[in-house]
Design a protein that fits this description.
By secondary structure, the chain is an alpha/beta fold. It is built from nine helices and eight strands. An eight-stranded parallel beta barrel has the order 1-2-3-4-5-6-7-8, surrounded by four helices. It is globular. The structure holds 2-phosphoglycolic acid.
């Protein structure tokens, strides 16, 4: 079955590197589906030149107005953007986004038919299942059309440092998320894993029963390394 490969560039790549990068993506040898999330300054370049789906790394919940530096779902939609990241741990830890912000961003995205990729994950010292439950309870309050959300399980302690969660750990948490969403909302969740995914662990992660794909961070902006990782998938 086709898997979903989410490429979160974070704040990487300069303009001179973008066209070669897009060229690499357009010529990948893969049967899987890719969503690319470049920095916002390159969204138009990717939309116009890249053959894969494009998403934004962030969005503001208001539609338009005096919100200096922010980008709305209306603007993203007008460009043809189909996906947006919501609740990434870097947004929460560095930019102090709250559960309420995440809830509003989810609502704004779904209202505009942009598919949110919603991040869930525990810090090193947090009990995992109760943390995930609390996040789901808070983020999804009052949200309609939860069935369109892509859920990205990313343990915060496994992001950007080579410390991937074990297969048992990922299985336990994704079983829990799947069960929570089916019991409460009667939906079959679309779940991906992120956190130090690399060419050596990607195939084992993709074999986990509730996993439909992976989210890959900083390394995804390196065109040679990400090509190797994607073409390793069997
Ligand atoms: P990483 O990041 O692949 O660099 O660990 C994952 C993410 O932040 O989405």
């Amino acid at each position: 079955m086709e898997k979903l490969i989410i490429l979160n560039h974070k704040m990487n790549l300069i303009y001179d590197e973008v066209y070669e990068y897009i060229d690499m993506l357009n010529n990948l040898n893969t049967s899987n589906n890719i969503i690319v999330l470049p920095s916002d300054v390159y969204l138009e370049t990717f939309i116009s030149n890249c053959s894969w789906a494009i998403g934004s790394q962030n969005v503001y919940h208001e539609i338009e107005g005096s919100f200096t530096g922010e980008i709305s779902t209306l603007q993203l939609k007008s460009l043809g953007i189909e996906y947006v990241l919501v609740g990434h741990s870097e947004r929460k830890l560095i930019f102090k986004e709250s559960d309420k912000d995440i809830n509003l961003k989810l609502k704004a995205s779904l209202d505009s038919n942009i598919i949110p990729i919603l991040f869930l994950g525990e810090k090193e010292n947090e009990e995992v299942l109760s943390t995930i439950k609390k996040q789901l309870d808070h983020y999804l309050t009052g949200i309609k059309h939860i069935e369109f959300i892509i859920f990205a399980y990313e343990p915060i302690w496994a992001i950007g440092n080579g410390k991937t969660a074990s297969i048992e750990h990922i299985s336990k948490v994704t079983d829990y998320i799947d069960d929570y969403l089916f019991t409460k909302y009667k939906i079959n969740a679309n779940i991906v894993y992120g956190g130090s995914v690399n060419k050596d662990n990607i195939n084992n992660i993709l074999k986990i029963s509730k996993i439909n794909g992976v989210a890959i961070g900083s390394i995804s902006a390196n065109k040679d390394k990400i090509k190797e990782i994607i073409e390793t998938i069997n």
